[in-house]
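As noted in the main text, all predictions were made from sequence alone. Below is one such record, for Alpha/beta fold hydrolase.
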Amino acid sequence: MVDILSSALQLEAAPGIVLHVQRFRPTTPCAPILLVHGLVEDGRIFYSQSGKGLAPWLAQLGYDVFVPDLRGRGQSTPSLQPGMQITQQQLITEDMPALFDLIEREYPGKPFFAATHSWGGVWLASALIRQPHYLPRIAGMVHFGCKRVIYQRSLRKRIMIDLLWGKVAGLLGRIKGFIPARSLGAGSADESCALHRDNLAWMNGGEWRDLEDGFDYALALDALHWPPGLYLAGKHDLYLGHVDDVKAFARELGNHDAQIVLLEKGTGCSRDYGHNDMLTHANARDDHFPLVRSWLLQHSN
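Prediction:
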């Protein structure tokens, strides 16, 4: 067993905004990797109190792992309050660059990997498109259940996304001043009404364009050379990260080295994985985490 030091860092992303970053560092790290959570969750999707999860698993392999709680959630300060407006633009232009700069300070000039879950993949990609000077530092990205647009039109999607997340959550947000995702059983972290609005605009098929200043991410992406990516989709992920929507996200990122893997029973997996359990299930470390390891090694300098 490799000795792992787990420590908490405090990172200022903007005046008055301090991100909690949990770091898992082996004695002799081989490379840094940034793990970015998605909507209605925080960094704990990547690690548990008992030391399980992707983050400590990667640290055991020798990676120096940085796991932030983005603003307004987890142990970051200030915590989400009624009426607090957190937008995607703030995460894309302030939180993400602050994290990139943190890794640059720790590993000057050295490439690093990133892994994301769900909507975190959209935030990471958007940040790199908008601030492309960081792109040469990215050795590769691993995306767990990441999509930008939900194209599925199943009954379950209409109930859970269109009705519950779109209409009911929006109504409660107007009443409470924030989206009570935890009370709704929609996630482990509540959301800002502004972030909820931004998410719906993109997820329902809106142009990949900033809602505040009109920055055109799709147009800017055309001029960029995109890093390699591993895209994992669960067979039982029926609407939050359906394999067809994961493929569409990979295509939207343009011509690049993209490997798409469906996590289903009988193809190296012990079960059909869903949206969250592809990271949290005990069998993940034996089923597909080794695939992640092989992919990272393949793309290491």
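The chain has one domain: 4-149+216-298. The radius of gyration is 18 Å. These features were considered when defining construct boundaries for the mutagenesis experiments described in Section 2.9.
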